[in-house]
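We give the chain.
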Amino acid sequence: MGLRIVEKAALSDVGRQRQGNEDSFLERSPLFVVADGMGGARAGEVASRMAVEQFDHVDGADKPPEQQLAEVAKGANQKIHKMAQEDSAYAGMGTTFTAALVTGREIAIGHVGDSRLYRFRDGELERLTHDHSLVEEFVRQGKLTPEEAEVHPQRSIITRALGPEPDVEVDTYTHSGRDGDVYLLNSDGLTGMISEEQVAEILRERESLEDAAEKLIAAANENGGKDNITVVLFRLGSDGEDDETGDTLGDQATETGLTAGAVREEVAKADATKTHQVPPERSTTQRSSVLPKEEDTPPPQAPVRLERAQPLRRRRRRRYVTGVVVVVVIAAVIAGLYALDRKFWFVGTNGRGQVTLYRGLPYDLPLGVSLYSQEYQSAVPVAAVADPRQRKFVLDHHPRSEGDSVSLVHDIERKYARP
């Protein structure tokens, strides 16, 4: 018995701190794609839209699903890279992408970057993709734990994307589907704001996939909404399930537009024209007391109640004083660290992967306290820095003097900034 898509939902939101939405998605059964763009101005939005359109505009299927996904992604990479080379307004642009193609009882996956694909099965959430990011590499090397990686200040630095280089390696996988499986594709604006445990809880309590998508977006925004947030959900069911919104797989899956010939045709079209339309922006104490035994309980007289109230007040005063002392100590420690870290500088990247100059120490304290502040943002993406030594200086976040840090950024701009 085959499987079909019996429910689906997709939603994208600009978040609370970005002016435009650089995410794009495709929801065309049996193919689902999420792309998260990067680059200055609106270049990230252009790159993600180009990646999604590459999947949406081709037709036919003459190769295995994994190979189809890889070839279309590589075609998108060539187009994005070519535009970035020809037009300085799009220099350094790129995009992540994660795609799922459902064929019969299997799901083929194509992936580059740090967008993600999850499977929700039997009440448990499992990630099926691996981030191409700096912190993920540190986890694989044993330098960070997965828990440390989730809160690392440079967790948004990606090591692989469509566009920055003329060629790209595409990760592909195939997983068996099961009746009732729910699949979630999302940009890092979701999982950067809420934990996987929260995602699983929302999926467990959902009324529908549309309800789940809305609650996932809302939860990410409630936790700060620092990036664009995109979620695409679909649920599999058996062929016999009665659902008017279901999309039958099988023949339809084999007719999905994903051929190498069509990729070449799209690339040829891109070569023949230098006019590219920029898409429009998208928008939005309870205290418990121990009672004495019944035989020891004194009669309810006023003097007894007064005698019990006095030590209670003393305990409250002691707790208040202790609390004040703790707050003062914490404030003093934070003030000391702040004064100390003003002496240091380091070079890193911002949320869009651009080389950025910071003042302070590259650490985050609990309660959202950061020991650094952004001083200058260059237009050069870290992916464009070809010198291994300079690239290492940008990614290791080692504190340096102000002069050394400023000189490094200026040298990178002289070498790699486009006129």
Notes: The first helix runs from residue 43 to 56. The radius of gyration is 27 Å.
